[in-house]
Amino acid sequence: MVAILILIILGFYSFHFPHSLKHSNKSTTFQSLFLSSSSNSTISSYLRTLTMHPHLAGTKSNSNTALFVLNHFTSLNLKSHTTSYNVLLSYPLNSSLSIHLTNGSFLNLPLTEPGLDVVHAYHAYSPSGSVYAKAVFVNYGREIDYHTLGVDVKGCIVIARKGGGLGRGTVVEKAEKNGAAAVLIYNDEGDTWRNGFERGNVMKGVGDPVSPGWGSVDGSERLSLEDNEVLERFPKIPSMPISADVADAILSSLGDNLVPLEWRNTLKSKGVISHVGPGPTMLNFTYLGEKKVSTIQNVFAVIKGSEEPDRHVLLGNHRDAWTYGAVDPSSGTAALLDLARRYSILLSSGWKPRRTIVLCSWDAEEFGMIGSTEWVEQNLINLGSKAVAYLNVDCAVQGPGFFVGSTPQLDSLIREVTKKVKDPDSKGVSVYETWSASDEGNNGFHLLMCITEKIFLSITLLSTPITGWQNMEIHSSSAMLPLLEFGAF
Ligand SMILES: [Zn+2]
Predict the structure, then answer these.
(1) What residues does the ion ligand 1 have nearby, CB within 5 Å?
(2) Which has the closest alpha carbon to 264: 148, 158, 422, 404?
(3) Catalytic (active site) residue 365
(4) Residue ranges per structural domain of the chain
(5) What is the distance in A from the centroid of ligand 1 to the CA of 106?
(6) pLDDT per residue over 386-395, tens digit each?
(7) 331 CA from centroid of ligand 1 (Å)
(8) From the candidates 221, 229, 262, 365, which is the catalytic residue?
(9) What pTM was computed for the model?
(10) CATH number attached to the domain at 7-87+295-486
């Protein structure tokens, strides 16, 4: 079991701006206790339990993870509760994709990972549809790509690779605008992950599409699926993720126009694509899905502050996953659960945080940040007056490197904290030193000073009315333990 990130939030102002020497000594003792309580084995066991089964939002197995998190919090004597919402989710029923070559042969292409009992590859909220049409490659599917291509894609099935700064929903939207009949999206990752499918949603905006602006609690109003406000959240043409292998099978058979030079240089699957179509290869693509009102659950643990109980610091992570979710999001949830365990140790030793700490385990994030958005909508007034900061941890473990994004108010805090953490990959060096010497660090240092996409995500996670908050999102290496001694608040 690889080592995992531990994200620690402790009373920053208590530790760093002590009111008295006595207070300072006490804080240092608690800080040491907190650090010495870290444990690989507990995080490892949490991660194992969370990833035993695929846990897609709205399914029984994801309710079981909610129960697991709730039981964990309550077993630690933390004040805990669950909030449930009935929201519109989207699931696949049936799908197929076949390639038809000019010599009359055809081949059915795989639409899920071999040997895994996981939901078929799909784009949540894609409409159902069936299309038999020519394939055409549109690079990243940006407007400039359609311009460069200079080919009429009306009625075609466009193949786009992920990247170029576009979200998958925007790729579908641009294809629709250009008259395409359907969209297939793949990850152009070169030699890695060639059989994998990147599931995702293609809905516009965040939150439950049938309760825009208010929490979808029991008995609340719901818009009809035919309501324009709902309809405009969904694309009009079907789409689907495909694997890199499936993409190669299609793209290597295309004729007609040559690949534009400016695309060729950045293609990882070099040599596979010489022409972009349209055709002569035909694709037969069918997607049948259903939109279904399903119950989701957020789980919370609240540790009441001793000096400023009405100021809340929130630390959250989503819990639902497209499949097993070992990285996204369970590596973050395992860290969150261990954080709770260590808080509990501190509490039983007489520690009290200065401000109230709320640990949040969100549901249905993958479908469009639905669990967190519904909760914010339900508690908007309360949060507007009490919330001080929101910290998000999602993929706590995803390869080497340290990545963080925040609103500028937390900039110096992040620097100070990373200076205190030893880099487990390099002896005698802090995370700060490794990070600042890296390209990512150099970029990160700049990013910290401005509004980044990650910050935008963090803000939207808790909806725009909370833009006054301090927000942060952290990703880190598998080998960093403990990564961030976060003396916050
Ligand atoms: Zn995630």
Answers:
(1) 328-329, 394
(2) 148
(3) yes
(4) 7-87+295-486, 102-280
(5) 37
(6) 998 888 888 8
(7) 10
(8) 365
(9) 0.85
(10) 3.40.630.10
